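Lab notebook: predicted structure, single chain.

Context: the supervisor wants predicted structures on file for every construct in the current expression panel, including those that have not yet been purified. This is the next one on the list. No modifications to the sequence; it matches the entry in the shared construct table.
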Amino acid sequence: MLAHLTKLGQICQDTLHMSASTARGKPADQDLLLCGLQLFPYELVDEGADRVVEVAIEAYGANVLLPAVSYVPEQHPQPSGRLPHNPRRETYRTDGGSYMRLDPKHFPAGLVPPPSEESIDWEKGLSDLRRVANERGVSLVPWLPILNGRVATSGNPDLVVNASDEPVPGWLCAARPRVRAYAVALLEEVIELWNPRAVFIDRFRYPEWGPNGIVDALGCRCTICREGPGGIVGRTQAVTGLVEELAKVCAIRGVSLWLDVWPPSYARVLGQDLEQLSRYASWCKPFAYHRLGGGADLARMIRSISNDARELQRIWRALIAYFDFEEPTEFSVFEQEGFPPTWATQEFRRASQQLDLRCSLAAGIQLWQVGHDGAREAVAAALAAQPRGVIGYCYSWASKEELEAAGATLMPLLSQAPFSSW
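Prediction complete. Output recorded below exactly as produced.
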């Protein structure tokens, strides 16, 4: 495992040199165009769409809601804990299915997204949301994971293949032609069913983790990837090529493309070159979830390698050196507190320097399990990077107090007019 970590570290160190780009000028004012909030169908069913939209607007100040139209198998909330204001349940598990009835004949054989089998009426929840959003004048942008979910079942020939030549269930490879045909069909179906002004795509990358552990994050060795350049170059070319095809679908239909991406320090390792990808998008949201460690439970990933305190500290010091992170210097502190909010500011600034001038920065902030003061600090850290918008994660995991704390800072910066910056 340490050999794998060393390889990952070398990849990360290369990434730091490859990611450097010339700083681009950004507007200096703090007026925000976008205040978004991500949400799931189960909370619409459990709390009611009227209540969800009311809290999102009046407590947080949302002018855009981003409902998941499919998702991945995952326990809610992450990494642990309870849903703070759900009246029916303390935790929930999404099953990785689609919250849409899709036409199988539009998809390649074996790559038809199955409908969710969760025991909720997700169709009614999303239908109610569309009605209430229209009544309240808040915009909806469907949130669509692309390469990750129940469609990527074990035995599927289009899975990512890890550094040990093992398939990675749950992850489709962006380089494979059938996967690109599937992704195009999926996006076309979403546009047909939702008729949106924009679509917010997610999970268009290579895994940061998988069923086999850290080895799943060290590249893809499927038959297509073996023929290409490999490494970071191969992964970024595959992901950029996929997004370019999706952008063409959007352009033909007059729909804007929004991107959900990893923080820039990690992004290229997973195949996301923000400088290239942002050429195809109008908004880009790097999710710098500081308490979690980025976009995944980084502490749990490190603990999977060793439980020895000295070894954990050695691994941690190597990791922060590779990524050029300043603090915390002790793994035990990180495990308890995560990164400080200033880490998020640094990531958003890095992203801002890489984005195309036609693509606006939407700072992705962690609003759950941070407390009232922590939510205010997360917003302040985001605003320090001068984004044009903020997208909070997420309605069901954050307490009402955390949403209100964020909203108290965000709402005075927003126009009272409906969102129009597509």
